[in-house]
Design a protein that fits this description.
By secondary structure, the chain is α+β, with helices and mostly antiparallel strands. Helices cover 32% and strands 29% of the residues. It has 12 helices and 18 strands. The strands form 2 sheets. Strands 1, 2, 3, 4, 5, 6, 7, 8 and 9 form a 9-stranded antiparallel beta sheet that branches. Strands 10, 11, 12, 13, 14, 15, 16, 17 and 18 form a 9-stranded antiparallel beta sheet that branches. α1 crosses α3 and α10 packs parallel to α12. The longest helix has 19 residues. It is flat and about 75 Å long.
Length: 453
């Protein structure tokens, strides 16, 4: 058994029992090894003595609770597994430089996330055969260095497969057993030049075997480190990978206590039997500095030009129709439109997308478009950054209404997402290898009524 596979049960046991009294004997039993082997292997695999790891994780969880809850510090201390409040105070001050009270008011963030180790593909495939992908985990990637190849192409479609095929050839020529390496990749925006290659995909193989760096096309490459939200995804089709990225960005991220940070969208390819069995997606994140605020607002009606489409591609079809309509009127249009989007399902269950472009002073729809009015009234509004589909943000508003004694959903009106200035350029945000967080912001507006007392 590989060392990392042997240690993962120990890490899982620690995480599941972080608030309880942890003994090395019980952790060793969970990993089916002796205490001396636990000491040795845990440090060899993670780079941390096991007692230090437990202490760091407890302080990290306590710091998160101090920042994001109003729980008393003494209650947090015991919930995080400290035997005495005095021990917690001394440890917290030594590791963060602040007392718990000072930390609650400070801008600094202390974070030590669970270490994630590679999982054997055989076990992973067994779980996937039952249709179960692992949940999102926030982990701290350790710094790694490997041998890399940057593949350039004129189009993004199929670039990953072409890059992987060429990378295999280069590694085979170099005498590298690709089956013993961990494979990572990410999209790269290439600088504009004289050739037609504007899309890039970087592949990196991390292995213990020495690789000659003088080979044509192969270069040493450092992998990103730091905090990431990670989730497994099927290796194919490409739409499944895109759906997993969209799930991370549009559903998990808005509900989490984290925000997107600068960094690459990393993909790890896990091999089994000489083939890519599945992928692990790594989203660069940072602990959020504050929760988004929800406001109750009386919004005016919105009059604009609408584009509606139904079916699986409804978002892109409505988007394309709007782009065509705008292109036909350029450069005559001197006013920039405001973008409103409503997504839902028809009575037959088919998805639809309604896109509305609103202009100050109004505008004639002309051919191929319809004049539409979105009703005004009372709305629950949540302003957020746009990282992907807005499903998670909308669900947050609905959870608020479900627990509200003052407001309820108004089913007679439709809600919408209003994309603020500088985000009208694209409706359907696709998860690609962005090198920085997206700057678009939006306001999710759900129609509501006051409950009668």
């Amino acid at each position: 058994m590989r060392s990392d596979s042997a240690i993962q049960p120990a890490i899982d046991y620690v995480e599941a029992n972080l608030g309880e009294r942890l003994t090395l004997a019980r952790i060793a039993d969970a990993a089916a090894m002796s205490v001396p082997n636990l000491y040795r292997l845990f440090y060899a695999v993670t780079g941390h003595p096991i007692k230090t790891y437990i202490r760091n994780r407890r302080i990290s969880e306590a710091a998160s609770l101090l920042r994001h809850t109003a729980l008393p510090a003494i209650e947090i201390a015991f919930d995080c597994g400290f035997d005495t409040y005095q021990t917690f105070l001394r440890t917290f001050k030594r590791m963060t430089g602040l007392t718990p009270g000072q930390y609650r008011e400070a801008a600094s963030i202390y974070s030590f996330e669970p270490i994630d180790l590679p999982e054997p593909a055989s076990a992973a495939e067994a779980r996937e055969s039952h249709g179960q992908l692992s949940d999102v985990r926030v982990i701290h990637l350790q710094p790694r260095r490997g041998i890399g190849y940057l593949h350039a192409a004129a189009f993004e479609e199929g670039i990953e497969d072409a890059a992987m095929a060429r990378f295999r050839e280069l590694l085979a020529f170099a005498g590298v057993d690709i089956g013993q390496a961990r494979l990572f990749g990410w999209n790269v925006d290439l600088p504009e030049g004289d050739d037609t290659s504007c899309c890039g995909y970087q592949l990196v193989a991390v292995c213990e075997q020495a690789v000659p760096t003088a080979l044509c096309g192969l270069q040493p490459v450092s992998l990103p480190e730091g905090l990431h939200a990670a989730v497994w995804a099927p290796a194919s089709p490409a739409s499944a990978v895109t759906a997993a990225w969209n799930g991370l960005l549009g559903e998990w991220l808005p509900r989490s206590a984290f925000e997107l940070r600068s960094g690459i969208f990393l993909e790890e390819y896990q091999q089994f039997g000489g083939q890519i069995a599945r992928m692990k997606l790594y989203l660069p994140v940072v602990r959020g500095r504050g929760a988004a605020s929800l406001a109750i607002a009386d919004r005016p009606p919105v009059s604009g030009i609408s584009f509606r489409a139904q079916g699986e591609r409804c978002e892109s079809q409505a988007d394309e129709a709007a782009v065509r309509w705008l292109a036909e009127r350029m450069p005559r249009l001197t006013r920039r439109p405001r973008l409103y989007v409503n997504r839902g399902s028809s009575q037959g269950g088919e998805p639809y997308c309604l896109l509305v472009l609103a202009f100050d002073g109004g505008i004639e729809p002309g051919a191929g478009a319809v004049q539409t009015v979105l009703e005004g009234g009372l709305f629950a509004c949540l302003r957020t950054n746009v990282y992907g589909p807005m499903d998670g943000v909308i669900e947050t508003v609905h959870r608020f209404l479900a627990g509200s004694s003052e407001y309820k959903l108004d089913a007679s009106r439709i809600g919408y997402v209003y994309f603020e200035t500088d985000s009208e350029a694209g409706l359907a945000t696709r998860a690609t290898g962005e090198q920085r967080p997206l700057s678009a912001t939006a306001v999710c507006c759900v129609p509501i009524l006051r409950r009668q007392t």
